[in-house]
Each structure stands twice: as structure tokens, then as C-alpha cells.
Design a protein that fits this description.
- The complex is a heterodimer of chains A (276) and B (758).
- Chain A has 276 residues and is α+β, with helices and mostly antiparallel strands.
- Chain A has 2 domains: 117 residues, Uridine Diphospho-n-acetylenolpyruvylglucosamine Reductase, domain 3, CATH 3.30.465.10; 100 residues, CO dehydrogenase flavoprotein, C-terminal domain (Enolase-like, domain 1, 2-Layer Sandwich).
- In chain A, 29% of the residues lie in helices and 28% in strands.
- Chain A contains 10 helices and 14 strands.
- In chain A, the strands form 4 sheets. Chain A has a 5-stranded antiparallel sheet with strand order 4-5-10-6-7.
- With 758 residues, chain B is of the alpha+beta class.
- Helices cover 29% and strands 24% of the residues of chain B.
- Chain B contains 20 helices and 28 strands.
- In chain B, strands 3-5-1-12-9-10-11 form a 7-stranded mixed sheet, with helices on both faces.
- In chain B, a hairpin with a 5-residue loop joins strand 13 and strand 14.
- Classes of the chains: A alpha+beta (276), B alpha+beta (758).
- The complex binds flavin-adenine dinucleotide.
Chain lengths: 276, 758
């Protein structure tokens, strides 16, 4: 038997979380239910689906706060996210397909922290910060420090994910996103990446480049970021390609090959720094 | 003004040729159709299967985990089959496949059934199955065609060859054939490989059995009730009326529910016997992908000899398929493969050799196209290479070399009636338009290269050779005791629209509205054996029988009305007749058209009563950053004889086309040590709507005088051609050949050194 709790507000959720470290947190369920048939039923369940305290998008002065309970449909349709945080909106519309987007949440993608979580490279490239909370209080963690390994994160056993705070890139920064999956929809990424590139004319001032599906967690590629600094677009693409070569160790699996992942990752990264 | 009838058909409009709505459509889209898993059987238990994890070995023991509580669970093994005096094999072409591997018996493939469990809930049955542990001593296993042919490890006979064929036309010896090749101005030669493919019907395999005294009643998801009946009669060693097989609403088959349901039927029958209850078995998706049949992987070596004027002098094809661990349907799949291997092209000399070999893969089996898609891929790649070698336009060369009425096929069959070559090629010519501009940029800004491919192909409709004659499929049309009209046939509706089509044909022949026709649910207790629901034969062959039976009923009713001075519509006459005499049944058996002669010993003569003809055009766009092949346009022009229901026919063509496009670029079944490594829907992918281009379908109707209203087969043909069209298009885009499926992004990436420099 599984005890089921649908908290009325965040506070009740946090208290339940504090008391029952072994209960499962449920949001849209699109990750959790996939393996439900193959696992023992959880002892208890805290259902956060549509919890008002987690369902919000707040446009602030220099950033946008996206509640953990926000679905991908909501992310994709939000005018401010579309206009200012394009990689996140683009990632949202490529997560699963319509049904999954209507149910899957940002908090769930971040909570699962799969190496193929599609929003995660976008959060890295946009230098998001996560807000988490427990009965002990709220804290913020830079997203680049969030993932600790294969599907592991800094979330403590009594904490819930509250929101992602995503700084809005300034006018001199251009952003990019591309997902390469096994097919066009309902598809697991073989490689995907996002970039935020700050330019002075056509010279790269600084860049954040992140890739997914090529390591045990989504990663920033600092070797590329260092290599492109001060380079002109175009030349920067070649430099990015060369720098990436030694920086990643993709693997062979049933979905693709290491060779393919490496080559496509290089092409994507080079494309991010191409002219036009 | 025309008034719509219950079927939406305007009164007075002929039912045949109209897109009346699907009889089963409303129940299906509203979720009211009851599939096997929806059927409620009070007190029914659930079954699960214990399977081998080893590809080849000897079963030494079956251990039950002593820590598990077995009090709620029944376990059955091969000993329960023999213990009940049942026969432990699944009858098909041979009786070589066991239902459960006995202790001391040989395990032939991963996921072979070893034991069964039954429990009050499905969950408990699945959990219990995990606590049954077969002990298997491994033997060396065979996973590829080369090792199978080397026959160091013997799986079947002395040479591991399940079946072989040799077809010769225009020559008597290999030396003679080689002389033609030696004298040719040009020889085009290549080896083509196609991959296994999963049917991915939406409803997984499902079956339920119940013993009613001495009678075993089986209901389930299936294409061919009488195949299951034949297998179960042998398995239970009983009389025909001691086992009743009924089809439940079936969520797709594509060949995957042609032979495999007999295995489930045997399993649920054994469990029902042992538990004394109804037992239901519904496969998990992962289990279904892992354990059931797939399209045969195939390797075809193909040679074309051409003279100085570009005419074909000789065609030589050598086809080898991987049959998997048991013979099952492999001989007939191979047969259709070799019979199509020369393609619809004129050639005075043809040699086709075919072999299907035993390996330790799960048995490969029926899948839409049934061997023809594999060899079509080979010959349409060859014709394309010839076009490139001669610098000739892709459609022009096909038009120049294609067979017409008066020509003969590889088996010497003289083509006479219903040859749609010029119509299908002409239709594509008309809509083709300009080929896409080679270089450009895709939506992501990545550079792309575009290309176009075309193919011309054919597909034999109905059973091969004397098959239809031997089978003499029967169907009945009846006036029921309460004066309604019934069609009784064992041809199943598996989503392809068979019952709607039958009701239209019967309505047309009787002169009534299709809504007045009831097509009876197929059960061996109430319908005659119309033959299996396969081989693009349901409309052309069984539909023709239904038409004859309906005409016979109508003639009888009209004669009776005249004799008794009864006036009114045919429906009114039928009701009057029923009041007086009760039921009126006309059972008709199939008779082949005149002049059909086939020699099975030499594989010569009329391989098929008639062929469907098709041409397909595909445009592709290859993304040079990701190496993905996007199909941007696909046009199929298919000669179907007559579209009884154009909307259903188009649906069949679109579905088959998308299956073929998926096979071309993204579908694959990956085996690792004989086990399906991608046995889930996440990794064993099929195209989604987002992957599908707008499919353009052109229906061509060159009537077949012996089909109902001129109709011939359409179910399989759309699957045969598009994969080669995609390969031809990608070759056009990149300037290098693609002779293996799938043309995945990984394969395209690896081909980069071979790309045309531009
Ligand atoms: C058919 C299908 C296709 C898919 N396609 C994609 C795809 O293309 N790309 C992709 O990235 N993903 C895909 N997914 C995975 C999934 O949809 C996403 O990861 C989604 O964002 C998960 O959100 P959810 O709300 O459904 O998470 P859930 O399943 O409810 O939860 C996921 C995990 O996050 C934890 N969690 C959720 N919310 C919180 C919170 N507020 N605080 C703490 N922990 C929390 C849960 O405890 C659980 O461990 C797919 C899934 C399916 C079934």
C-alpha cells in the first residue's frame, strides 16, 4: 500500500518531505511512471501536480523565474520565455510530443537529471540558478553545480525544487539550441546542445556552451568557451570544433555510436559559432 | 435531392467505389471496441511466460525459487503438455517448433518459451514468472548468415538451410548464364542488405482460453482463425469441433499476428486446463518486441547484364534470408522474395537462387510484403545504378525496360490482363515537377543536400502458385432467420477495413445499402474457412467469393419472388422469404481464373493470378550537420484494379508507405548475442507524424476482370518500393551508393568520405 498525499500548499509539502524522506515526489509523472511497472511501489507519494505555489512564470527585472511545476506547454507558450530565453522555449517544444509537454514539468526534468534531459543544457547555457526549499529554509544553487553524476544532484532528502531563475541575456548575446534525436518527436536525444554567446560586433567576448547526451550528465564545455574567446565568428567555429575534440568522451549505446555523437557534437558547436 | 443513408451514402449511389465510413470506426475512436484485454471473464486468471535468456543450449532443469510463495500460482511446463496427451509442437508448414521446451530439450533462441505461470492477477503472474529459473547448458550459437551456411554448428538438417529455390528462364545451365554475362556490354553488380523490422501493431499479442467440458474455446487477437484452429487441433490432438477459435477486435497485425497467435493459443489452453479456469494472456510491449516474429533480414546479391543498346540480357539474383530458430513461414516468405527478385523488367534470361537459413534468432516471420520488400530494395537499387551508368533519366529507363502485356516474368508467366505499367509511371511523370535544388540550408541554418529517387515495382496479389486453388477459400452470404443479410467469412478485420469492404461488395451485389449487411465476427464455430488474412488476398480473392455468394442469394430471392408473386425491394423479399422458409445460405468456394498454370517442381508458370503495379517518387533533404535524412516528399501511384472504398485504400497505402519509409531511415531491430537489444518503444522506434511527409497517393484502376468489380490486392504493395526510392534519393543527394538499410544518420555520417565533391 502506498500512502498518497496531495499537499494544499508548499508548506504542507515541505513538512511531509521532512517527515518522510522515503516518499516519492510526483509532479507530471512522465518520468516516474515509465518505470513504475518494473519497480516496487513507493511507500508514500507527495503529489505536487498543479500545486499553485510551484506553477508560475514571473518576469523580473533581469531574470525570469519559472516555477518547478510549470509544464513544457506553458514554458513553450510563454511570450517572455519565447522572446528572451529562446533555447528553453525551443527545448520545451521538442520534449516528447504534445501529450508529454502538457504533463511534464521543468521540476521533473531537473529532478530526474538525466544526461538526456533536454532542458538541462539550455539551463546551463543560460546560467540559471535553482531555488530549492525545505522546512529549514530556501537556498539557491547555480545550475552549473547542480548535477553531481549520473542522475544525481545536490537536492537534499528533505528538499523540493521550487523554481529556476534564469537571467535574461543582454542584447549583445545570441543564443542557440539544437536537439538531435532518434526521430522528430517522442525521441530521446543522441546529442543536444545550447549556447549563449556574447559578441562585440562579430568577435566573441564570452560564451557558455553546454551539451547533453555525451557524458553522464549535461555539461558545460569550458575548453570550447576558452578557445573561442576573442575570436571572430566563423574562425571561432573552427576553434570550437578543435577544442571540443579533446573535451568529451561520448559512448556507444543502442541508440547511436560514440563516433556519431562526437562528430555531430562538433558540427553543432561549430554551427553555434558560424557567421549569420 | 439525395438523402444520406445510415452509412452516409447517398441513396441510389453504388456502394462499391464509395468512401463509406468504416463500420468499426465509431466504436474504435470512441473507445467502445472491446479488445481482448477489455473482455471480462469472471474468475479468469492471468498467464505469463518464462523465457530463455540463452540463445542456444540444452534445458537441464527448471527451478522454482524456494523463497517465493507459490500457493497462489500455477506453473505449467512441457510435462503438462505431454501429461494431458497434447502434442508439444505448433503446427504450421512443419511441426518443428515446440510450445514449451521440455527438460532435456534444446533451447533454440533467446526468449523462447520454457514454462508458463498463471495467477489471479496479471501483476502476480508476471512477478511469479521471474521466480522460475530455467537452468540451461549453453551451446555455441549462430547469429549470421555466413556462420549458418558454414554449418559448423548444426541447427537444422545437415546444412542449416530451411528451404531453397532455383528459378531459371532462358537457359539451362550456369555455364550458359555465365556466357551471357561474359558477352554483355555492361554488368551492374551489387550486394544489398535489409534489416529486421518489428510490426509494432498497437495492440500487443493477447489470447484467452476456457475449457467447456471437452471443448476448448479460444478467443484472441489474430489474423487467421483457421491457422490457429489447425495448430490447436494438432496440439490438443482433438477433432475439429472440439476447439473453437474466435477473433476479438484486433489492433493491427501487419503479418505479426499470422503465425504467432497459435503459440499463445497453445499456452493459454494448457494453463486453462491446469487451473480449471479461463486464462488470459496479454503480452507486455517489451516482451512482444523481444519474443515475437519480425521481418526476415535479407542479403541479396544481384547482377544485371546489359547489351550495347542498354537492353537487359540477363538478371541473376541470389537471395539469402535469416529464418531464425524455427522454420515457421520462412519457405513461403522466401518464395515471394525470389518470385519478385527480378523485378517487373523484361529479360530473356533470368536465374534466381534463394536460401533461407537457420540461426539462433527468434523466428522471423510474416510482415507486410512478405519477402518482396527485401528483394525490391535490391532490384530497384540495381536499376538505379544502371540508369547512372548509362546517364539515363530514372523514370525514362524504367519506362523503357518495364514489362507490359505480352511480356513474360522470371517464371515465364505471360502477362495479359491488368498490367498498369504505363499508367503508374505516367502518373508519376505527370506530378513529378522539377527535382529539388541540390544545395541549400535547412530550418536550423545547417547546410543540406537534396535529392530525388524513383522506383517502379510490382506485387503478386493472392497466394503464390497453386496456393489459392489448393486452399479453395470459402465464404457465405446468408439471409438470416429474421430476414437480415449476413456475410460469413474467416477473413478478419485487423484495422485494414475488411468488414466495411465486405459489406460494400455484398451490398453492391444484392442491391441494398451497406448498412443492411452484417459481417459476422469470425469464429470457427460460425464461419467457413476463407483462408488466412494475408497476401493481399482478402478483397481480391475472398471479396470475389463474397460477391458471388451475394449474387447467388439475390438470384434465389428474385426467382422465389417471381414464383410467388412477391413484390418489393430485395430487403422486403428477403424478409418475406425468411418468414416462410427461415435461413437462406449460399456458400461459395474460390475458383481460379481460367488458364492459370503453375509448376511447383520447376517454379515456372503463373506465380500469381495478377500483379499490382506501382511507381513511387521520393525527395529527401540530408542535413549535413546531423546526417539525418528527412523525407520531404513521397508520391505513390498504385494500380489497385478498383478501389472498393477509396478512402480505406488510401489509408492502406499511406500506412504501408510510412512503414516503408520508417524501414528505410530509422527502424531497426538490434540483436546482441541473439537478444533484441532495443526491446522497447523508446529505442525500437517507428516514425511519428512529425517524421511523415504529406503522403501523396494516386489511385490507378486497371481492372482485373476476376476480382470483385475489378479489384486486386493493395495491402502489401505500398511497403515494397519506398525504401529503394529513399536510397536512390540519398544517392542522388550525396553522390554515393546506399545498399544497406536502415540509412540511419550514423550510416550517412560514415559515408562522408564517399560523398560527391561539390
Ligand atoms: C513518451 C515520453 C517522452 C519523453 N520525451 C522526453 C524528451 O524528449 N526530452 C526530455 O528531456 N524528457 C522526455 N521525457 C521525460 C519527461 O517527460 C521529462 O523529464 C519531464 O520534464 C518530467 O517531468 P514530470 O513532471 O513528468 O516529472 P515526474 O515524473 O513527476 O518526476 C520526475 C522526477 O523529478 C522529481 N521531481 C519532480 N518535481 C519535483 C520537485 N518540485 N521537487 C523535487 N523533486 C521533483 C520526482 O521525484 C522524480 O524523481 C519523456 C517521457 C515520456 C514518457
Amino acid at each position: 500500500m502506498t500512502t498518497y498525499l496531495r499537499p494544499r500548499d508548499l508548506d504542507e509539502g515541505l513538512h511531509a518531505r521532512a517527515e518522510h524522506a522515503d516518499w516519492t515526489v510526483l509532479a507530471g509523472g512522465t518520468d516516474l511512471l515509465v518505470n513504475a511497472n518494473h519497480r516496487a511501489a513507493p511507500v508514500g507519494m507527495i503529489d505536487l501536480w498543479r500545486l499553485a505555489d510551484l506553477c508560475f512564470v514571473r518576469v523580473e527585472k533581469t531574470s525570469v523565474a519559472i516555477g518547478a511545476g510549470t509544464t513544457w506547454t506553458e514554458v513553450e507558450r510563454h511570450p517572455a520565455i519565447r522572446a528572451k530565453l529562446a533555447p528553453l522555449a525551443l527545448a520545451a517544444r521538442e520534449i516528447g510530443a504534445l501529450q508529454i509537454q502538457a504533463r511534464g514539468t521543468l521540476g521533473g526534468n531537473v529532478g530526474t537529471s538525466s544526461p538526456v534531459g533536454d532542458s538541462l543544457p539550455a539551463l546551463l547555457a543560460l546560467d540559471a540558478e535553482l531555488e530549492v526549499a525545505s522546512v529549514r529554509g530556501h537556498r539557491r544553487v547555480p545550475y552549473r553545480e547542480w548535477c553531481t553524476g549520473y542522475r544525481t544532484t545536490h537536492l537534499a532528502a528533505d528538499e523540493l525544487i521550487i523554481a529556476a531563475h534564469v537571467p535574461v541575456p543582454d542584447a549583445t548575446t545570441r543564443t542557440s539550441w539544437r536537439k538531435v534525436g532518434t526521430r522528430r518527436a517522442q525521441s530521446i536525444s543522441k546529442v543536444m546542445g545550447a549556447a549563449a554567446i556574447t559578441l562585440d560586433g562579430d568577435v566573441v567576448v564570452s560564451a557558455r556552451v553546454a551539451l547533453g547526451a555525451i557524458a553522464n550528465r549535461p555539461i558545460r564545455i569550458t575548453a570550447v568557451e576558452d578557445a573561442v574567446r576573442g575570436q571572430r565568428l566563423g574562425v571561432a567555429g573552427d576553434a570550437a570544433r578543435a577544442a571540443l575534440r579533446g573535451a568529451i568522451q561520448p559512448i556507444d549505446d543502442v541508440r547511436s555510436t560514440a563516433t556519431y555523437r562526437r562528430e555531430v557534437a562538433e558540427n553543432l558547436v561549430a554551427r553555434f559559432f558560424s557567421v549569420s | 435531392m439525395e438523402r444520406p443513408s445510415a452509412t452516409g451514402l447517398a441513396v441510389g449511389l453504388a456502394p462499391v467505389g464509395a468512401s463509406v465510413p468504416r463500420v468499426d470506426g465509431f466504436a474504435k475512436v470512441t473507445g467502445r471496441a472491446l479488445y481482448l484485454d477489455d473482455l471480462d471473464a469472471p474468475g479468469a486468471w492471468h498467464g505469463a511466460t518464462v523465457r530463455s535468456t540463452i540463445a542456444h543450449g540444452v534445458l537441464e532443469a527448471i527451478d522454482l525459487d524456494p523463497a517465493f510463495d507459490w500457493s497462489q500460482v500455477v506453473v505449467a511446463t512441457a510435462a503438462d503438455i505431454t501429461g494431458n496427451n497434447f502434442a508439444n509442437f505448433i503446427r504450421l508448414i512443419e511441426d518443428d517448433q515446440v510450445a514449451l521446451v521440455p527438460i532435456g530439450g534444446r533451447v533454440m533462441h533467446v526468449d523462447e518459451a520454457i514454462a508458463l505461470v498463471s495467477a489471479p492477477t496479471r501483476q502476480l503472474a508476471f512477478i511469479a514468472a521471474k521466480h522460475v529459473k530455467p537452468r540451461i547448458k549453453a551451446l555455441p550459437a549462430v547469429f549470421d548468415i555466413e556462420s549458418a551456411l558454414a554449418a559448423n554448428q548444426k541447427l537444422f538438417g545437415a546444412d542449416n538451410i530451411f528451404k531453397q529455390f532455383l528459378i531459371r528462364k532462358g537457359h539451362v545451365s550456369d555455364a550458359e548464364l555465365e556466357a551471357v554475362f561474359a558477352g554483355a556490354a555492361r554488368v551492374i553488380e551489387g550486394t544489398y542488405q535489409t534489416s529486421p523490422q518489428e510490426q509494432m501493431y498497437i495492440e500487443t499479442q493477447a489470447m484467452m482460453a476456457r475449457w467447456d467440458g471437452e471443448v476448448c474455446r479460444i478467443v484472441g487477437s489474430m489474423q487467421c482463425p483457421y491457422y490457429v484452429h489447425k495448430a490447436m487441433k494438432a496440439f490438443l490432438d482433438c477433432d475439429a469441433d472440439e476447439v473453437v477459435i474466435s477473433q476479438s477486435v484486433t489492433g493491427g497485425g501487419f503479418g505479426g499476428k499470422e503465425e504467432y497467435p497459435s503459440m499463445l493459443a497453445a499456452h493459454v489452453a494448457v494453463l486453462a486446463k491446469k487451473t480449471g479456469r479461463a486464462v488470459k494472456m496479454v503480452y507486455d510491449r517489451d516482451e512482444d518486441i523481444a519474443a515475437t516474429t519480425k521481418r526476415h533480414p535479407c542479403r541479396t546479391h544481384h547482377r544485371l547484364a546489359v547489351d550495347a543498346s542498354g537492353e537487359i540480357l540477363a538478371i541473376d539474383a541470389d537471395v539469402v534470408m535469416d529464418g531464425g530458430a524455427y522454420l515457421t513461414l520462412s519457405p513461403v516468405v522466401l518464395s515471394r522474395g525470389v518470385l519478385h527478385a527480378a523485378g517487373p523488367y523484361r529479360s530473356p534470361v533470368v536465374r534466381i537462387r534463394g536460401r533461407v537459413v537457420a540461426t539462433n534468432h527468434p523466428p522471423h516471420g510474416a510482415f507486410r510484403g512478405f519477402g518482396a520488400p527485401q528483394t525490391t530494395f535490391a532490384y530497384e537499387r540495381q536499376i538505379q545504378k544502371l540508369a547512372l551508368a548509362l546517364g539515363e533519366d530514372a523514370l525514362a529507363i524504367r519506362k523503357r525496360l518495364a514489362v507490359r502485356a505480352g511480356d513474360t516474368t522470371a517464371t515465364g508467366q505471360l502477362l495479359g490482363i491488368s498490367v498498369g505499367t504505363d499508367e503508374v509511371i505516367g502518373a508519376i511523370e505527370q506530378v513529378a515537377g522539377k527535382p529539388p535544388v541540390r544545395d541549400g540550408h535547412g530550418p536550423s541554418g545547417a547546410p543540406v543536400r537534396r535529392g530525388r529517387g524513383v522506383v517502379f515495382y510490382f506485387h503478386g496479389a493472392g497466394f503464390t502458385g497453386a496456393g489459392e486453388q489448393r486452399l479453395a477459400g470459402r465464404a457465405a452470404v446468408a439471409v438470416t432467420a429474421d430476414g437480415g443479410f449476413e456475410v460469413r467469412s474467416s477473413s478478419t478485420d485487423i484495422g485494414q477495413g475488411a468488414i466495411t469492404m465486405f459489406s460494400q461488395i455484398a451490398a453492391g451485389a444484392l442491391g441494398v445499402d451497406p448498412a443492411a449487411i452484417v459481417v459476422v465476427d469470425p469464429s470457427t464455430a460460425q464461419v467457413p474457412d476463407s483462408g488466412p488474412t494475408v497476401a493481399s488476398r482478402t478483397c481480391m480473392v475472398v471479396g470475389g467469393v463474397v460477391e458471388k455468394a451475394a449474387l447467388a442469394v439475390r438470384a434465389k430471392l428474385e426467382a422465389w419472388a417471381a414464383a410467388h408473386d412477391v413484390r418489393g425491394s430485395i430487403g422486403e423479399v428477403a424478409r418475406a422469404y425468411a418468414v416462410k422458409h427461415g435461413e437462406l445460405v449460399e456458400i461459395v468456394a474460390y475458383e481460379p481464373p481460367p488458364g492459370i498454370a503453375w509448376d511447383d517442381s520447376t517454379y515456372t508458370g503463373a506465380a500469381y493470378p495478377v500483379f499490382g503495379w506501382a511507381a513511387c517518387l521520393v525527395d529527401v533533404e540530408v542535413d549535413l550537420d546531423t546526417y539525418e535524412v528527412a523525407i520531404t516528399r513521397c508520391v505513390q501511384a498504385i494500380d489497385v484494379g478498383k478501389a472498393i472504398n477509396p478512402s480505406i485504400v488510401k489509408g492502406q497505402i499511406e500506412g504501408g508507405t510510412l512503414q516503408a519509409l520508417g524501414w528505410a531511415v530509422l527502424e531497426n531491430v538490434v540483436y546482441k548475442d541473439g537478444k533484441v537489444a532495443n526491446a522497447n518503444m523508446t529505442n525500437c522506434i517507428v516514425p511519428t507524424f512529425a517524421d511523415a511527409p504529406d503522403l501523396e497517393t494516386i489511385l490507378i484502376e486497371v481492372p482485373y476482370p476476376y476480382g470483385p468489380s475489378g479489384a486486386k490486392g493493395v495491402g502489401e504493395i505500398p511497403m515494397d518500393g519506398p525504401a529503394a526510392a529513399v536510397a536512390n534519393a540519398v544517392e542522388d543527394a550525396l553522390g554515393c551508393a546506399f545498399d544497406e538499410l536502415p540509412i540511419s544518420p550514423e550510416v550517412v555520417a560514415a559515408s562522408k568520405p564517399r560523398w560527391r565533391k561539390s
